[in-house]
Model the fold of this input.
Amino acid sequence: MCRFLAYQGQPVLMESVVSKPCHSLIHQSMHATEAKTVTNGDGFGLGWYGERPEPGIYRDLRPAWSDDNLLSICQQVRSPLFFAHVRAATGTATARANCHPFSHGTSLFMHNGQIGGYANVRRAIEALIPDSLYSNRHGTTDSEAIFLAALARGALSDAVKAFTSVLTTVRGITRAAGITEALRFAAAYTNGDTLHAFRWACDDKAPTLYWRHDANGLHVVSEPWDESKGVWNALPQGSVLVADRHSLPKVMPFSPECG
Done:
């Protein structure tokens, strides 16, 4: 499974959470402590908002710990809203196009989880992406397919409704195909203003997700990047955290139909 983080608040240098902490995301790419795999070396990615409405993207298929360009960008770029992700592939190719986060217009998305038995239902899942968005399908992952399908169902204006609809449909597809492997979804999505962090699984074994709100802003992480675990809140399974730049985060139920 992958590891990721999202930040929203006062503009900060990305290194403050991506590379500097004792258990930073780069450290987690080699030494994850709350994932099935200790090493997450199948690529990495950054997505950040700056002077333009659309996010900047930097992704590569090399391990995060071996890329000096990643460190340099994090040392220089200050942003009020950014995502970072290190990948452990689950059945699709190790390629730049499969690295998270994924973007379209002002939207940014990253995912830790799986569509169980994806290889057997890939054509049906991709059919959820309309022609108007399919040209933005650059990789082969289930994560990107979920993202584009959610955009087609209105994620830009109502992300909770859109992702609920998509995951309910996906679960129906996998059940109809007789797939018993789980659908698991720990993810972050933003339209450039509101940040959503989801934690859900059809088998109640969703990947870990934590959050905290400090003087700078909101941090969402797969696992804490420091040793102060007491100040981190575990996002409950079946929940979505929602926050914009003008209000405190709130946690709400998130419950796609399992069937």
